[in-house]
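Batch manifest, entry 17 of 40.
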Amino acid sequence: MRRRPGPFTLAMSALEPALMIYLDNAATSFPKPEAVYRMLDHYLREVGANPGRSGHRRAVEAERLIGEARRALASLLGVSDPDRIIFGHNATDGLNIALKGFLRPGDHVVTSDLEHNSITRPLTGLEKKGWITVSRIASRAGFIEPAEVRSALGPQTRLVAVTHGSNVFGTIQPIGEIAEVAHAGGARILVDAAQTAGVAPLDIEAMGLDMVAFTGHKSLLGPMGTGGLALLPGVDPEPWREGGTGTDSSNPLHPRNYPAKLEGGTPNAAGIAALAEGARYVARRTPEAVRRHEVSLAALLRELVAGDERFTLHGGGDPSRELGIVSFTVRGYSPNEFAAALDEAYDIAVRPGLHCAPGAHRSLGTWPDGTVRVSTGPFTTEEEIRDAVRAMREIAAAAA
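Output type: structure tokens
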């Protein structure tokens, strides 16, 4: 698109992006692989049925597509039994299923200041009811130290609940080491993999990750309204949502077999079928290759603004331990103002604010306004990053 008029007085330049530059992939990935769009259309137009609720061929086909999605996710995430892939609405849903189905009155939970509100708020709610106690360890430069987790464990600790990838810093946590520490202390581990499933090394069984919440609409490249929870054998939360499952309908109690035990209600079948196509795309390209691409572009953005005193980069610096996320602030602008200028004048999409992780910003020193967050994706190009940086410099210059 051409530069659009907006409320900001900016000098004209040679920068005229032909298309929107989308740099908000940590919120949701865009665009999706073409196969994702085709499957959504196919399901809604040609399948359309409620899976498992009827015996006709369209219902059978719907159930088959969901089964294929379980197998695709299980293969990609390192889970041997596809029935331990529980579908819900998103990672938030998966985290709530885990926290409210696994914890019992009197339990102690260890978590960190990096967490998204999808962990922080359920834990705080249970804590305020007096059901559990919570220890919140401080991160260091965007990382959770396994030794700090070890120090926080106690005789009542039943769960360690932490993120795998910070949506503010972009840092990938040493989650395998943290799992070992939790298990040595007699606790289970719950991992928020919203930012990492599909883009960072994640072999759930090999890493001993008891419960892993994933979302479909970020690096797995599926539609919104998809995601859920992956479980190791032997981990058995109680149902948080109960209702129809299409099977064993005469039983007044919710089924105990997996995956039905944790999947009450009609699923987002079209979204799940399309999510399978996103997972297959990621598997063919490989998460490692996608992450290298995204991190290299984030590193390029850092390099291009390094030394410009108008920009302050927050976190990061070790590409081997990071995602394609760059958080920064700009002299003379609040994050909201700067992001609005990019959107209104250049059609460049970024994310301003606290990113639903206020504790991380307190640690970072960017509370209460937060940061501007650029997050690259599998379809981001080097040209887009260079164009975005030129736009960023022009906007920053307007405040001088």
